[in-house]
Amino acid sequence: MTADSTLESRPVKRGDADGEETLEGLLGDAVLGRDDHENAPAVVIRPDEVQAVLATLRDEAGFDHCSCVTAQQYPDRFETIYHLKSYADPTREVSVVVPTPTREPKGESAAPVFETANWHEREAYDLIGTEYEAHPDLRRILLPETWQGHPLSLDYDAEQSQIVTLSEHANPIAGDEHDTTSETMFLNIGPHHPSTHGVLHVKAVLDGETVVDVDPDIGYIHRCEEQMCQESTYRHQIMPYPDRWDWVSSGLLNEWAYARTIEALADVDVPAYAQVIRTMGAELSRLASHFIAIGTYALDIVGEFCAAFQYAIRDRELVLDCLEALTGQRMMFNYFRVGGVAWDLPEPRGEFIANVRDVLDGFPAKLEEYHDLLVTNEIFQRRCVDTGVLEPTVAKDYGCTGPVARGSGIDYDLRRDDPYGYYDELEWDVVTEPDGDNFARLLVRLGEIEESAKIVDQCLDLLADWPEDDRTVQSNVPRTLKPEADAESYRAVEGAKGELGIYIRSDGTETPARFKIRSPCFSNLSALPEIARGEYVADLIAAIGSLDCIMGEVDR
Fold first, then answer.
1. What subcellular locations does the record give (predicted)?
2. Rg of the chain over CA atoms, in angstroms?
């Protein structure tokens, strides 16, 4: 793609697009060319027209979800891609490509249009070196401020020494301990604190017990997952990495995000039988994730090792027993394969199905226990009802998805709205709650446990009756995958925490030229200041837990 690419007319919807305006007609002179991706049409625009273009697409075309921002460097230019969707219909997608010259990689910031771009652009600046004019806070987000260079840029010297100056360890409020015009106090929470649910540092400004402002400080366990994937082969070496992003429970969901992207990029089909197994395994992972989220949240609110936490760990272990029988692992599953899954259900087959059914049969009574312990608990209600409120418009502006968005009444679930696997053949409902508070996010996760159990039960019915001679677990995939050079695709699945997406650009070799991970926790956590301002310190802790963030996925 170059800036003088030939224009062509194409609607802004994946699939049927009758009545849709073309991108060129909508955006006019801001468009420099076209660079259509595998999943969506893409327009190349001038770097000084970013805000105008994105505002037009949001306000006039309904692309109100900036789901991901990808930055990368070519030999002759830098490039930022804004992946836009519609919350009402995520199959409506468009990519906005912003090329900038190598000598001055600077474009207009999208943060004034989509607040979620604030963190995404900081990450692009940190790792690639792209700068964004009018950005409200352009500084590193994953690496220390003293880091030398940008690790994913083409000219980065990985062997250079890194110098951490003494200022890195200075008192962050030196000279400001007493402000005669204010009664505020600066408080560090974390990074090593149980209530931060991982290595998260929260910089809080307090007025007495009231939170005036919050700045989440991330990056303490950044592990270069994107760079490692870029140095690994599509066919065999990348698949073990996704388990390690959200390492708590969402391994198969993470694996599916990568599988969906590479299968679309390399035009690989998945047998229907393998799709059923994938769907069952993914929902078992969702159950395990939600149980640990509910249990640890009970600790945040009630304190100590309360009964709800012990019950949640008990039930999560039962789900992990099922996953271990299926995959051979309890944590890093590495069960999905490009084109299917590693192997069929364990033998004896009937015993595995019966064991999983036994676990599911116990859920209705156990969910009643959770409702008795938490939902109807007066103390829990006083801590969670009407605290940590996230308005729907604010949630969309920050790119929130998953239970965080659905707890604010946003009816958005990729399993239904952009179907994959076997979801569109099954009976289940998307759970939403209208209030947008800490309590609503808990109710969504409890409701999703019930719906995931329904999905798993239907999958077991299908697997039990599937003809033996048609149980194909993998399609015929070439030993070496080399997607077409310059092919690009962004695809996503509905992870336990929300939209988990992968962008891949191929260069014709067996390794990606660019591999970008769109973490739902990253976007959800960026909304913490909006949730916490005006609340008490105890409510800030409740808000952090209600987001259910795993820092390994945030930092990647």
1. Cell membrane
2. 23
